[in-house]
Specification:
Layout lengths: L1 H10 L3 H21 L4 H11 L6 H23 L15 H17 L2 H34 L6 H20 L4 H11 L5 H28 L7 H21 L5 H21 L1
Amino acid sequence: MIAVVMPVVALAETDATGLVILAVVAAIASAVNSVAGGGTILTFPVLTTILPDTPARMVIANATSTIGLWPGAVAAAWAYRSERVDQPAWARWLLLPSVVGALVGSALVLVLPPEWFAALVPWLILLSAVLFTVQPWVTGRAATAAAAGSDERPTSIAVACVLQFLVAVYGGYFGAGIGILMLAMLGMLRLGDIHRLNAVKNVLGMVVNGAAAVLFASGAVLGFHQVAWGHAGVMAAAAVAGGLAGSHLARRMPARVVRRGVALIGFALAAYYFLK
């Protein structure tokens, strides 16, 4: 798998070719996000290859990827509008911890030394790959727990708020796999049937990524760090197209096929960064 992935990443080292590859990968990543999640695993290594080699390159790649992919999530949500499930009343309580946690996680990226983030990258990608591998088991357990009956007591909702804050911190820091974590958390707390939990997960994921994107963009404007705005623009345009296409693809292509592919790429990239 490394032999398949890394030549594509290496090819992106030239400017023009790199932007073309980035656009294609961003479209694919956005489509993957709408089907199974995990698009960050695809865009992050391409950005780290084509951006200037500086100590903060991985931090800039992370911020640029978050900003560039978010319009695709909005486009995919819009494409799914006719299939949207009504949000339960308790879901509103999770919005604030989602925003606050995402801001905390993305702030950690900005204030901590970039070398720390670079050292964590292989572990973050490996964690993401593991999450995608166990997603069928997580979904099955969540559905089983939900089938046992709904438990919407204030205590359960309070625990969900705390756990959602922690998930959002990870989401703001890196983000790949937060949908799986949210589905596991909501399912184990028995806060509704699997279809409703999926609807809540999609909205909260868009909120987490949106809050992180706003902070990254604001920090760049204020001079706290950098965002590769040209690359983010290319990604945004491609991500919108990919998000719309992915929403239609999701109705035809088994999500498990996409999920397994993303997981394999994740393991290959984790091995590459560990060896590097």
